[in-house]
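@channel sequence for tomorrow's demo:
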Amino acid sequence: MKLTHRIIHLDTIDSTNRYLREMDCPAEEDLLVCVADYQTAGRGQGTNTWESEKGKNLLFSVLAKPVDIAPTRQFILSEACALALKDVLDRSVDDITLKWPNDIYWQDCKLSGTLIETSLSGGRIRHCIFGVGLNVNQREFKSDAPNPVSLWQIVHHETDREHLLEQIICQLKRRLEQAYQGCYDEIQQAYHQALYRKDGYHPYRDENGVFLARIIEVKPDGHLILDDMQGEQRTYAFKEVEFFRGQGTRGYGQEITQQAFFLNS
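structure tokens (generated this afternoon):
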């Protein structure tokens, strides 16, 4: 199976996700890609916005039609997209990890985020739109986001955005082909191996407060399974738990100082 794609280049638009959502994708095209130099209403998960200097970063959306993947297994699409980005970034940067569910991290800083929208019809996935923001050549961030980073800040030179996009789309097609062919175990194993904070105990926060835990696994439906210091397993859907970064602990992690901030999702 070899997927085809077409790329639409735009100067400025409110949202590349919206553009593709309202567009009729020809049946013969497997992937439709929309890339813009600037988005006036680019957003992340929930109410989060995405800061991007015009013409400096990669802001693009990809519409795919994974009609043979069951809605209950749609998280495999999120894993495939995250891995495609990591596959490409690994070629030039060390220390790239995947922060559950699909952020791209360099060390403890956020390099990329993806907003995924899935449309269902008749009990099947009609289409899936991956909206990606990847910090490429921006040298300074002025918003109050706590931990953004760009490729320029890591490698200290400009990156050809068009070539980078071509590499990402090529790798995304390869990862989606794996998913379409049912290679779920291969994708999931690679995803788990790449997880941010996959080893050891780290601070998290849920509705009951801060606690230390280690990652056990991410279920096929996307739920995160943590094991806390008392040996109790905790299961979370997205937005039910936050990664927490603080300065110091007392009492073997039972008390985390208030001098801390949360990593954006």
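heads up for whoever presents: The helical segments are 16-21, 75-89, 151-155, 161-180, 184-193.
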